[in-house]
Design brief:
With about 500 residues, this protein is an alpha/beta fold. Helix content is about 50%, strand content about 15%. It is elongated, with a radius of gyration of 33 Å.
């Protein structure tokens, strides 16, 4: 345990003219200096000792401010050489800064203080290193059997304080010790609501991605165990990341999930059966959900994986071209739609979801095509989730028109279909109309500059003769795109 300023004052019987301020600060080292500004050579936590030989009385207030700003634990001021007592301006300035000043009389040698304290501190550092190693070992061992709860419990015991584990939305996963009394403070710290924090000394450690952590570990460090708490909490955050997402094997896991989804969409009965067995989908039907975000900065695949984990669903999630595909067991469809709706409306995730109907596993491709159409409505109408089963009947009628009617409906875009072999213009038109002709949103979805999108739409108008500035022509283009998607070979025209 580190000695505090109070301990040193009592041990060497030193007068404290600044009163009770700063006496509970731990001292990490002692340092002697007669420089007017020694702060470039300080790291914080020191007991700085000086005779004030180069300090004029006019400089004392600024000197105290510099030391406090550098995080000095306390100032030891030797008297009898230049100053007969600690100068009043220094005492007053230090008191305002919360910095304790210890008056060192002529009979106490500086060397005695520094030698004894530094020797004790070295022994304390060695003991602290041993405590850190033992704590890391204990948390690692308990992680295998008790998971996140065991890690947080062991951490709290080792730092002799309390700890809370919360997800990124502030929901509590584990609370140990006095944490139950300070849940509101811990949540405010985790969510960055500093004005609401009443408990001092809280530190938040991100679990997972440092930019967008999957969870937050909040600890309350005791003043005499700051280093121990910091090191053990960092290791605990790493262990929690592994415990909360044990299958996160980077690209290998991502590719495995994508291959499993692709296999289910092939419709090959033998292949589907093998994949279903490996992913615990042995019985029942499944539906396909498609997700898209209006912002490419949103980690939508990670969100979908998190929602699957929340609902204890198989993580059959795949991302391609900013479109996320999720395979969901039929019994969990209602819970999935509610989870997505909650994420969009209350958690602020800018996503849209289209959901196909439940099919036998070999029929997942049909469910996916249905999900594409449902996603189109979700994007166009800014709805969090649209289920194909509840789509407006107009869309369903489109799928049952005869070939002559469909040909007539798609005729405005036939010239574009012949010229646009790469379907770049068709897809750009579809996104543009889906985003209600919003240039910024549509160009963001396509990953191009808005001027490029304007050039593409001008080319569409030139080829088709339609004017995208008129409502009637936009409706004609939209219906033609809807009808085109029902034609064999054009199913890939996705929103």
């Amino acid at each position: 345990m580190l000695e505090t300023v109070r301990d040193v004052a009592q041990r060497f019987r030193l007068r404290v003219p600044t009163g009770p301020v700063g006496l509970d600060r731990p001292i990490r080292w002692t340092h002697l200096s007669e420089l007017p500004d020694p702060t470039p050579w300080l790291r914080g936590g020191e007991l700085l000792i000086t005779l004030g030989l180069q300090l004029d009385e006019a400089d004392l207030a600024a000197y105290a401010g510099r030391l406090a700003g550098a995080g000095v634990a306390a100032l030891g001021f030797g008297i009898g050489e230049r100053y007969p007592a600690v100068p009043a301006p220094l005492t007053e300035a230090a008191r305002r800064e919360g910095l304790a000043v210890l008056e060192i009389p002529v009979g106490v040698a500086f060397q005695d203080i520094t030698y004894q304290l530094n020797a004790d501190l070295l022994r304390t550092d060695a003991a602290e290193s041993r405590l850190i190693a033992e704590g890391v070992s204990a948390m690692t061992q308990v992680a295998r059997s008790a998971g996140p709860q065991g890690i947080v419990t062991t951490l709290a015991h080792r730092i002799d304080s309390w700890a809370v584990l919360m997800d990124r939305n502030g929901n509590v996963h584990a609370a140990v010790g006095a944490a139950r009394v300070h849940i509101d403070d811990a949540r405010a710290a985790a969510l960055g609501q500093r004005s609401r924090i009443r408990h001092p000394g809280l530190t938040v450690y991100g679990v997972g991605d440092p930019v967008r952590p999957r969870a937050h570990l909040i600890v309350a460090a005791r003043p005499d165990r700051i280093t121990l708490t910091r090191e053990l909490a960092r290791h605990a955050a790493l262990l929690l990341d592994l415990a909360l997402n044990p299958l996160s094997g980077g690209d290998t896991w991502k590719l495995a999930r994508a291959d499993a989804v692709d296999a289910l969409l092939t419709g090959d009965p033998a292949l589907v059966e093998r994949v279903a067995a490996r992913w615990n989908l042995l019985t029942g039907n499944a539906a396909v959900a498609l997700l898209r975000s209006r912002s490419r900065a949103v980690p939508l695949e990670e969100n979908a994986l998190e929602w699957c984990a929340d609902l204890d669903l198989p993580q059959l999630v795949s991302e391609e071209s900013s479109l996320v595909t999720v395979v969901i067991p039929e019994d969990d469809i209602a819970r999935w739609t509610e989870r997505v709706r909650l994420a969009v409306t209350e958690e602020g995730v800018p996503a849209r979801c289209g959901l196909g109907t439940a099919q036998p596993l070999a029929g997942c491709l049909l469910s996916r095509r249905q999900a594409e159409q449902a996603l189109g409505i979700a994007v166009a109408e800014a709805r969090p989730v649209v289920e194909f089963a509840g789509m407006p009947t107009g869309r369903l009628i489109l799928r049952h028109l005869d070939s002559a009617a469909l040909t007539a409906l798609t005729s405005p875009l036939r010239p574009l279909l012949e010229i646009d072999t790469g379907r770049v213009l068709l897809r750009s038109l579809r996104i543009f109309l889906s985003e209600n002709t919003n240039w910024e949103a549509a160009s963001s979805q396509l990953g191009i500059h808005r001027h490029t999108l304007r050039q593409r739409m001008a080319r569409v108008e030139e080829i088709t003769g339609l004017s995208l500035t008129t409502t009637e022509d936009r409706v004609i283009a939209w219906l033609a795109l809807q009808a085109l998607q029902t034609e064999p070979g054009l199913e890939h025209l996705r929103l």
